[in-house]
Amino acid sequence: MHRSELQLLLGRYASRWPAERALVQRFEDFVATHEDCLLRSCAPGHVTASAWILSPGGDEVLLTHHKKLDKWLQLGGHVDGEPRVERACLREAQEESGMERFTFVAWTDELTPLDLDVHAIPARADEPEHLHWDLRFLLQAGPDQPLVCSHESNRLEWVATARLEDFTAEDSVLRLHRKAVEVRR
């Protein structure tokens, strides 16, 4: 499976966030040792893609109340073999929000993830506990698009950034917000 685009993204991330070099190394080691890392069938875990979606005005973020995990999170999901992880991010944003138009927020010369996160997904009847190796990108929604909740969500909500902590205490979600604020200064 072709992983060179993923490795480029990880390299760019390491350059932008040098304090997170140990986390990047974990990602690089996982990608190097699991040729099938982009597929759900990779048993110990697999690469996923998430979107931190800003409203057209930039003062709100889109959260989903995830059915299976029962928490408010950013939108995202499995890359399903897509070697260009940013394309999977865009696909997931579209599928889970019902919106079609997004732009990647440019904050470096080349597309760079906003955040990396490794988190455990609990075991379910047909699936053992495994890890999601999540690359997270900063998107901005185009104007005048209605939200359509997917089967994976209980609810979608535009949340004013000042009220984010009313919806979640998840460190990884709050970290996305902090980083988005930092790169948009």
3D structure, described in words:
By secondary structure, the chain is α+β, with helices and mostly antiparallel strands. It is built from 5 helices and 8 strands. It has helices at 4-16, 21-33, 85-97, 164-167, 171-183, and strands at 45-54, 60-66, 71-73, 75-78, 102-104, 115-121, 130-141, 153-160. Strands 1, 4, 5, 6 and 7 form a 5-stranded mixed β-sheet that branches. Helix 1 runs antiparallel to helix 2. The longest helix has 13 residues, at 4-16. The radius of gyration is 16 Å and the shape is globular. The model has no long low-confidence stretch (mean pLDDT 95).
What's the quick description here?
It is built from five helices and eight strands; from the N terminus they run ααββββαββββαα. The protein is α+β, with helices and mostly antiparallel strands and 185 residues long.
